[in-house]
Write a structure and sequence with these properties.
This protein is α/β, with parallel strands linked by helices. The chain folds into 2 domains: 175 residues, Rossmann fold, CATH 3.40.50.1260; 158 residues, 3-Layer(aba) Sandwich (Rossmann fold), CATH 3.40.50.1260. It is built from 13 helices and 16 strands. The strands form 4 sheets. It has a 6-stranded parallel β-sheet, sandwiched between helices. Strands 11-10-9-14-15-16 form a 6-stranded parallel β-sheet, with helices on both faces. A two-stranded antiparallel sheet has the order 2-3. Helix 10 links the parallel strand 14 and strand 15.
Length: 363
C-alpha cells in the first residue's frame, strides 16, 4: 500500500476516511475506541502542516436516508473533547452535508482566514450511493472538498467496495493512514511469518463464519482452541488429521436451564496453559456471553492472561472480542496487546486470505 508517512502534506487539504461508527446512547458517545484510533493520523497531519482536514465516516445503518439518530454531530463534539485532552490543537466543525456549496464555502472560509480546521461531514450512508460504490457520488464529495490527498484510515470498512473505500481513490492521490497501516502490518505478521508456537483462539456463535478461519490456520497454528457458543453447541473438527491440533472446550458455565453460556474452569485452565506456551496468539470470537455477567468470566480470565504475558505477539480481532478486551483494558491499563483490531468483518476476511477492496485500491 501507499502510506501516509511517505507523502508531503504541508499546506495541503487532506480528505480522510475514518471509522467513527461508534455506539451512541441518548445522543452521547459511549465508547470512543474508534475515535481515539484515528488520533495518530490526525496528529501526523497536524504536526506536518496540513492546511485543512476533512473527515468522512458512516454511523449505523440508516439505509440511505437522513435519520437524525444516526447523525455524526455527537461524534464531532466527542472528537473535539478528545483532541483538546490530547493537546492536538485543531478546531472541529461539524458540517451537516456531504457535498455542495455549503461544504465548499466552509472550507474556503477557513482557507481565507488561514485557520486550519478539522471538518467532519455528515453520515456517508445518508446517501444510498455510498454503499453502491457510485462514482458520481464520490466525484461530488471531491469537487466540494477539493483535496490534494485522500487518506484511507477506516480499517473496519475496507472489506467493502463502497464509494469511500474504492471509487474515491480513482479521483485523487490516495494512501493508507496509520491505523490502517498498523492493522495490516500486524495481521500480515501473524498470517505470513508468525513466531512459533502459534495459538489460535476461536469463539463466537456461528460455525459457518469461523470454519474458514480454522481451515486457514490449521497448517500454520501449533494449537487451536475452540470455545464460545460453537463449542457449547458441540463443535467437532472437520477432519481426523486436525484433532491433534484442535482442542474444544469440554466444560461450561450454564444458566438455570442448563444452557451453556461460558467455558468452564477446566477449559480456562487448559487454554491458559496454551497461552503460557505461545509466542503468537490470534483471538477471534468471545468465549462466552460477555455482555451478560457472570458469563464473561472465561473471556476476562483469558484476556488477562494474554495481556500480562511478555514477549508475545497478540492480535485480538472480531467486533465483540475487540470491544470486550478494549473495555477491560480501560479498567486494567497494565494489560498489553499487540493489536486490538477495530475491524470485525474486515479482520476476519483478511485473516482468511481474502482480498479487501479498500486495500487493493491503495496499491
Amino acid at each position: 500500500m501507499k502510506l501516509l508517512k511517505d507523502f508531503d502534506v504541508n499546506g495541503k487539504t487532506v480528505l480522510v476516511r475514518v471509522d467513527y461508527n461508534v455506539p451512541l446512547e441518548n445522543g452521547k458517545v459511549v465508547s470512543d475506541l474508534r475515535i481515539r484510533a484515528s488520533l495518530p493520523t490526525l496528529d501526523f497531519l497536524k504536526t506536518h502542516g496540513a492546511k485543512q482536514i476533512i473527515l468522512i465516516s458512516h454511523l449505523g445503518r440508516p439505509k440511505g436516508e437522513a435519520k437524525p439518530e444516526f447523525s455524526l454531530k455527537p461524534v464531532a463534539e466527542k472528537l473535539a473533547e478528545i483532541l483538546n485532552s490530547e493537546n492536538i490543537h485543531y478546531d472541529v466543525e461539524f458540517v451537516p452535508e456531504l457535498f455542495g456549496e455549503n461544504v465548499k464555502a466552509k472550507i474556503d472560509s477557513a482557507n481565507a482566514s488561514n485557520t486550519p480546521k478539522i471538518f467532519l461531514l455528515e453520515n456517508l450512508r445518508f446517501d444510498p450511493r455510498e454503499e453502491k460504490n457510485d462514482a458520481e457520488f464520490a466525484k461530488q464529495i471531491i469537487e466540494s472538498v477539493n483535496p490534494e490527498l485522500f487518506v484511507q484510515d477506516g480499517f473496519a470498512v475496507v472489506h467493502r467496495a463502497h464509494a469511500s473505500t474504492d471509487a474515491i481513490t480513482k479521483l485523487v492521490p490516495s494512501c493508507a493512514g496509520f491505523l490502517l497501516e498498523k492493522e495490516v502490518t500486524n495481521l500480515e505478521k501473524v498470517t505470513e511469518n508468525p513466531d512459533h508456537p502459534v495459538l489460535v483462539i476461536i469463539g463466537g456463535a456461528k460455525v459457518e463464519d469461523k470454519q474458514p478461519l480454522i481451515d486457514k490456520f490449521l497448517p500454520v497454528a501449533d494449537k487451536i482452541f475452540v470455545g464460545g457458543k460453537i463449542a457449547g453447541d458441540g463443535y467437532n473438527p472437520t477432519s481426523s488429521d486436525s484433532t491433534h491440533k484442535i482442542t474444544v472446550a469440554d466444560d461450561f458455565q450454564t444458566d438455570d436451564q442448563g444452557v451453556r453460556f461460558d467455558i468452564g474452569p477446566h477449559s480456562v485452565d487448559t487454554l491458559a496453559s496454551f497461552v503460557y506456551g505461545a509466542k503468537t496468539i490470534i483471538w477471534n470470537g468471545s468465549l462466552g456471553l460477555v455482555e451478560q455477567p457472570p458469563f464473561d468470566k472465561g473471556s476476562r480470565q483469558i484476556a488477562e492472561t494474554i495481556g500480562k504475558e511478555q514477549g508475545i505477539t497478540s492480535v485480538i480481532c472480531g467486533g465483540d472480542t475487540a470491544g470486550f478486551v478494549e473495555n477491560l483494558k480501560e479498567k486494567e491499563p497494565e494489560l498489553e496487546f499487540s493489536l486490538i483490531s477495530t475491524g470485525g468483518g474486515a479482520s476476519l476476511e483478511f485473516l482468511c486470505g481474502n482480498k479487501l477492496p479498500g486495500i487493493e485500491a491503495l496499491k
